[in-house]
Specification:
The chain has 156 residues and is mostly helical. It has seven helices and three strands; from the N terminus they run E-H-H-H-H-E-H-H-H-E. A three-stranded antiparallel beta sheet has the order 1-3-2.
Length: 156
């Protein structure tokens, strides 16, 4: 990729792609939730499970919530390290690359994901940091030594 023509992706495109991806991730989380429910019914039975939930028992535990977190990372890590784009990023013509405009490594994708959690949980301040940064980088960009770039429109 030509370093001269690399344009940082605008924040609004990054947010739009995250929204798009959140629908896909939500569908995966629902699937895992249904699988968890099926397993719980097999273990406890329908009637006992109904009684447990009416008493406030949670169907999730540490293993279940860890599975959800790993699934979310798996989604992003897979796409970021394979072609630099999730499906939402593809739709909005943005791509995550290393500082040298190459695909990011699995280590970079994990660090990017870990830093993105507090970046978003703190009201998105880490993502909005891209507005203030001269290179338009968010916290996760800086921590993982990567950047999100805008891809040119394809010629018709």
């Amino acid at each position: 990729m030509d370093a001269i023509n690399v344009t940082p992706a605008p924040l609004w495109r990054r947010v739009a792609s995250m929204l798009y991806d959140s629908f896909l991730i939500l569908a995966l989380l629902f699937l895992v939730g249904f699988i968890n429910l099926f397993i719980q019914i097999q273990i406890y039975g329908d009637e006992q499970l109904r009684q447990m939930t009416s008493e406030g028992y949670s169907l999730g535990g540490p293993f279940y919530y860890t599975t959800l977190l790993v699934l979310i990372y798996g989604f992003y890590g897979f796409f970021w390290t394979r072609n630099g784009q999730t499906l939402g990023m593809l739709a909005w013509r943005i791509k995550v690359v290393s500082e040298h405009n190459q695909l990011i490594s699995p280590g970079q994708s994990l660090l990017r994901f870990i830093v993105a959690i507090p970046s978003l949980l703190m009201g998105g301040v880490g993502l909005a940091w891209a507005i203030l940064d001269k290179d338009k980088r968010s916290w996760q960009d800086m921590a993982s030594r990567s950047k999100v770039i805008l891809l040119p429109k394809k010629a018709k």
